[in-house]
Structures are given as C-alpha cells and as structure tokens.
Write a structure and sequence with these properties.
Blueprint: E1 12-13, H1 23-29, H2 39-56, E2 62-66, H3 70-81, E3 87-92, H4 95-106, E4 110-115, H5 124-133, E5 139-143, E6 145-146, E7 151-152, H6 155-164, E8 168-172, H7 184-187, E9 191-193, E10 207-211, H8 213-220, H9 233-240, H10 254-270, H11 272-292, E11 308-312, H12 319-330, E12 332-333, E13 335-336, E14 345-349, H13 357-372, H14 380-390
Parallel strand pairs: 1-12, 3-4, 3-5, 5-8, 8-9
Antiparallel strand pairs: 2-10, 6-7, 9-10, 11-14, 13-14
C-alpha cells in the first residue's frame, strides 16, 4: 500500500490538551533548523530561560524546558529530589496525583498518600495534620491544577506549609502556567513543572521546569545517583547553563524550542495578568452558557480551574456518541472523563489560543445540536446570549 503525506483537518481543540496552536507559533516551527550547539541557537536558549522565569515568576537559575512532555517534567522533579528510603507526602485529588505516587515508588521511596474527593481542591488543614503526624517527610507533592477534574488547589498555602515544616515542595503546574496565577518565588515553591501544550498554546513535547536554590542544594547533596541519566539535572545543566561553552548532553528539539520561544514572547507581550484575566473572563462566559443549557459543573465555583471545565453529562446523553458527533460535524474536540469520572463527565478546555469567545459560541452551538439529536431539549441561542451577556 502506498502511503501519502498526512494532511490533518483543522480542528478546534477544546479538550484537556493540546490546545489550539497559535498561527505565530506554527510559523515559528517552520523556520530553518540550526544545529543544537550553534551560537545563535544557544542565544535563543538563554532567551527562552529568561522568558520561562517570567512565566514562572521566579529568579531560579535552574529554570529550563525538558525535551519531553509534562510527564517527563514530573519525573525530572521526583528523580532528582527523591532518593531510596525517603518519605513523600502525596496529595491525591485526581489522576495526576496518582501518577506522582508512581514516581515516588519507582524512586525507591515511600509515598504517604493523602486522598481528597475528586472534583475538590486539596485541603491545607488536612495536609498540615499529615505533616504534624509524620515528622520525617522529605517532600510534599501536589497538583496545582488537576487536569482530570478541573480543581484548582491553593498552592500558596500548601507551599507555605512545606516551608513551615521544613520539607521540599513539588508542584504540578502543567495546566496552570499562563492561565491562573503561578508565583513560584512569592509562594516559595521548590520544584515546579509545566507543559507546552496547555495555556502556552504551543505544540506538545516540552516541559518547563524550575528548581529553587534549596532544591538544587538537595540535588547536589544526593547520596545515590539520579536514576534517570537523561533527566539528571547535574548533567543537563552542562547544556542549559548560562552563556559560555555548552557541554553536549542530547540533541535538543530545535524547532519545537522555536515554538516555545515564540509562545513565551506572546505571553510576555500580552502580560501575565492580562492572560489570567482573559482565561477567567472566558470561563465566566462558558459557565453562563452551559448553565443555560442545564449542564452542571463538577467542581464547586470557588475551586474551579478557569481553563479546564469539567461538567456532568446530562442524563440520557451518550458520552462517546456526543464527542464523535462534535468531531464529525463541527471538527470540535472536547475531552472525556478519566478514572472514576470516566463516562460521567466531559472536560472542556479554554487554554491559551483556545480561550476565545468564538470558540465558546462554536461549542455551545455544537453541544446543543449533539444533545438535541439524542432527545435533550436545548436552546443554543439562549445559551450563546447568556455567554455573551456574562462578559459584556
């Protein structure tokens, strides 16, 4: 069989990620490839680090993009900071908290699991009680923005508890960077990882990470080698260090880094506060429209992540059939539920370039049509009017 070039359709991506990639970033990806040790490329690497420091709101020297997706950023934080025999308090309020436990176990450490109902934020009171109970914990790990549920936890309070009890903090900010406040230095977070494909509107495949001076000191004082050669920060620093001669570590994904650089330039141009406000406004509009359709949110209003909206599927509506209808008739993607929420919810992303009013109007039209096909009474015009009124 002869295989020809692949030409994907133009989809509107409103699932849990990836989000729509801005045309400027697509253009950047197609620029001429340089060698990964080319002086011009190394100069761009330094700019990318500076831009990431702005996005993280940090002055941490060890701030860089891992050449792999957010899951590798997660692993980089754990394998560098956690050693065999350590104890790690892991807060679980969704799928990605459980992945943290997998990382702890594979490091040969002990995970102390602290569970919270899916669809709710991590409770700092319960976390403090656990820290008091276990006086030999090395790391507190939690998900700032739980992508599987759309719950937003109070990272400032949790990082504050880590400092109070003299433990390190590992923070999953894959879905939060660029969409809600993320203030690494002010909150005194120790290790934070994110992803390129969410609110940065870039392509998947890169994971920004940042480590505090306290975290770097722990990495340098390790008794055991980092179990991952590729993710060993001691080695990566030779390539991503500031200025001067770079030691070869791996062939960086040159064109993907062009895209990340462009996305961070765009974030700087818009301004972090403006980006946060845009995501909040689009969430308000979407929520008004969905509620007009009679659709309920999983997460309580005060704990919702604006850029990842998890909603209950109305009774009598088929999950997979609806999502297939949206793809086939509107080239629109939304996400299915994960874990205990599988088949019960949809996850609607409003991340980065996807957080636009035209996308919300498209979604409300499409969802109303899809549900009407299954006998659900829905008025798209009223839902759109409610969404537009919410941001007037």
């Amino acid at each position: 069989m002869a295989i020809s070039s692949f030409h994907p359709p133009v989809r509107t991506l409103m699932g849990p990620g990836p989000s729509d990639v801005h045309p400027r970033i697509l253009d950047a990806l197609g620029r001429p490839t340089l060698g990964h040790l080319d002086p011009l490329f190394i100069g761009m690497m330094d700019e990318t680090k500076t831009l990431l420091k702005y996005a993280f709101q940090t002055s941490n020297e060890l701030t860089l993009p891992i050449s792999a997706p957010g899951s590798a950023g997660m692993e980089a934080c754990f394998v560098n900071l956690v050693e065999p025999g350590d104890k790690v308090l892991v807060c679980v309020n969704g799928v990605f908290g459980t992945r943290m436990i997998e990382n702890v176990t594979r490091c040969g450490a002990t995970a102390i699991r602290l569970d919270f109902p899916w669809g709710t934020a991590v409770d700092p009171v319960a976390v403090e009680a656990a820290l008091k109970e276990h006086d030999d914990i090395k790391v507190l790990a939690f998900v700032h923005a739980e992508t599987s549920t759309g719950a937003l936890s109070d990272a400032q309070a949790l990082c504050g508890l880590a400092k109070k009890y003299q433990v390190l903090s590992i923070v999953d900010a894959v879905t939060s960077m660029g969409g809600v406040p993320l203030l690494v230095d002010e909150w005194q977070a120790d290790a934070v990882y994110s992803g390129s494909q969410k609110c940065l509107s870039c392509t998947p495949g890169l994971s920004p990470v940042t480590f505090s001076d306290a975290a770097v000191a722990v990495i340098k004082a390790r008794k055991h080698p980092v179990q991952s050669w590729f993710l060993d920060m001691n080695l990566i620093l030779g390539y991503w260090g500031e200025g001067g001669k770079r030691a070869y570590h791996h062939t960086a994904p040159v064109n993907a880094l062009y895209g990340l650089h462009e996305s961070l330039v765009m974030l700087q141009e818009e301004g972090l506060e403006n980006a946060w406000q845009r995501h909040a406004a689009m969430h308000t509009a979407l929520a008004a429209g969905l509620e007009s359709l009679g659709i309920q949110f999983v997460v309580p209003a005060g704990q919702r992540l604006p850029q990842l909206n998890t909603i209950y599927i109305p009774e009598g509506i088929d999950d997979a059939k609806t999502r297939q209808y949206l793809l086939a008739n509107y080239d629109l993607e939304i996400g299915a539920g994960l874990g205990v929420l599988a088949g019960k919810v949809w996850r609607i992303g409003l991340m980065g370039y996807s957080a636009r009013m035209e996308n919300i109007i498209l979604l409300l039209n499409a969802l109303a049509a899809a549900m009407s096909e299954q006998g659900y009474s829905s008025d798209a015009a009223s839902a759109i009017a409610a969404a537009e009124a919410a941001v007037d």
